[in-house]
Design a protein that fits this description.
Helix content: 40-55%
Distance between the termini: 21 Å
Number of helices: 16
Oligomer: single chain
Structural class: alpha/beta
Number of domains: 3
Order of helices and strands: HHHEHEHEHEHEEEHEEHEEHEEHHHHHH
Number of strands: 13
Radius of gyration: 23 Å
CATH superfamily of the largest domain: Type I PLP-dependent aspartate aminotransferase-like (Major domain)
Length: 475
């Protein structure tokens, strides 16, 4: 094949992908709507695409880029002269490292038994992954069923000598609301426990707004670490995130060093060894060019669009906005028993060219959380709010005429008797065929699938979801 043949084939592979530009894909991607930002980022990334950030003594440019970005994040997010940080591959790795550091500190201080992670149920799933990988027990912190904010009283009741870390969100991904950071961090500090603020999606937006109701960053007493992604509202290519740590000693807890083999001495500040420098360079270039004023303009543009979107949704019969969206995320729920089913609404919006991310209902102590649709508003979406609202209103009318998706009772009853740990790959494949997603092929309408996932016991649902991905990734 010629190089042109290869690139033509590569472009053709994207024909079935969701659009990454234009603001209609309201999850996964972050489009500033400004082509010149992407051109600069692409040039910077290309200049560093072969550089290995594994060893900054061999590539001192990497150290300069990382120090500049960490310093900028610290200045923006309440850091001081003792604040240090690390560039990671994304928000998940930043959260993983925060949990790892807290676990190691807990162990060094003589913690006995299995450490615990105090986690609001709305905290990002990355923390559950961290607990799985690093063997922490999760203590679920319920959230207020109306505001969807973590309950400080629950945090106070769960703190004990096994607690290694408390987490709060700024804002939470499912609903876009700000947890009571000050109260949670104060409780953690009084117990001598670190507190991490997950600002992965909001940290490069909230500092530029004038109506944030309360402090949330490292300036809050008791907050010991904070994560913020530059490949979200820093509008850099994926993947680059910053983990800030208020205590230099705490950062050392997630580093790895060994001279215990015949090769070169290894020191890794992150989970990865080799680290791509391209996204780091792109983030650095975009930050240098936009500066505070440029980011403030983009953040306020997206925030104003979010407010307008939330107000418009409130005028659509059968729908409501959950909680008070503080930055650029909106969660939409059915309004009342006769309201619009949001799973059907997601399918109707997909037919109109929009991706709104379905989120299943969630049972918790103190009041269950409803099924919602998640919308991430970016610079590119800001100019399309009227069109989005018009399509939402039209889709809501269409969804009202559809039967509500209901899981097959027989399949749900059978699943209740299954031990998901005992299922073989072949048995999972068979169950997926019964559920209508055999061969990794998703049906045209996903509402029945989402209804089934919500109705199944959680361990069974998780096993089947992993099975879907297993089918997708078969050559």
């Amino acid at each position: 094949m010629t190089p042109d043949d290869v690139l033509t084939e590569l472009t053709a592979l994207q024909a079935g992908d969701l659009p990454t530009h234009g603001g209609a894909t309201m999850a996964y991607v972050y489009d500033s709507g400004r082509a010149e930002i992407e051109q600069l980022a692409a040039a910077a990334q290309g200049a560093f695409q072969w550089t290995n950030a594994l060893d900054p003594t061999a590539f001192p440019s990497v150290a300069r880029i990382e120090n500049d970005l960490v310093g900028a994040a610290a200045a923006l997010l309440g850091g001081d002269g003792t604040t240090v940080g690390t560039l990671t591959s994304g928000g998940t790795e930043s959260c993983l490292l925060a949990v790892l550091a807290a676990r190691e500190r807990w162990r060094r201080r003589g913690g006995a038994g299995r450490p615990r992670l105090l986690l609001p149920v709305t905290a990002h799933a990355a923390f559950r992954k961290a607990a799985h990988l690093f063997d922490l027990e999760i203590a679920d912190v319920p959230v207020d069923p109306v505001t969807c904010r973590a309950a400080p009283s629950a945090v106070a009741g769960l703190l004990d000598e096994r607690t290694a870390l408390v987490v709060a969100s700024a804002p939470s991904y499912p609903h876009g609301v700000l947890d009571p950071i000050g109260e949670v961090a104060a409780l953690a500090a009084a117990a001598g426990v670190p507190c991490h603020v997950d600002a992965c999606i909001g940290g490069w937006v909230l500092p530029f707004l004038d109506d944030v109701p309360e402090p949330f960053d490292l300036s809050v007493p008791g907050v010991t670490s904070l994560s913020v992604d530059l490949h979200k509202y820093g509008y850099a290519p994926k993947g680059v995130s910053v983990l800030l740590t208020g205590d230099p000693e705490l950062r050392q807890e997630h580093w790895f060093a060994t001279a215990g083999w015949p090769g070169y001495p290894v020191v890794n500040p992150t989970l990865a060894g080799t680290r791509p420098a391209g996204p780091m360079a792109a983030a650095w270039a975009v930050h240098r060019w936009l500066g505070t004023d440029g980011y403030r303009q983009l953040a306020r543009q997206a925030h104003e669009a979010t407010r307008a979107l939330a107000a418009g949704i409130g005028r659509i019969e059968g729908l409501r906005v959950v909680g008070d969206p503080v930055s650029t995320l909106v969660a939409v729920a059915q309004d009342g028993p006769a309201g619009v089913d949001v799973l059907n609404l997601a399918d109707e919006m997909a037919a109109r060219g929009w991706l709104l991310q379905p989120q299943p209902p969630f049972a918790q102590d103190g009041g269950d959380l409803p099924a919602t649709l998640h919308l991430t508003v970016t610079g590119a979406t800001a100019g399309r709010v009227d069109a989005l609202l018009a399509d939402l209103a039209d889709a809501a009318r269409a969804a009202e005429a559809l039967p509500r998706p209901v899981a097959d009772p027989g399949l749900v009853a059978a699943a209740a008797a299954i031990d998901p740990r005992a299922l073989t790959v072949a048995e999972v494949d068979g169950l997926l065929e019964l559920a209508g997603v055999g061969g990794g092929r998703l049906p045209g309408r996903m509402a029945p699938v989402h209804a089934l996932v919500a109705a199944l016991p959680r361990p069974v649902a998780e096993r089947l979801l992993a099975g879907v991905l297993d089918l997708v990734y078969r050559p």
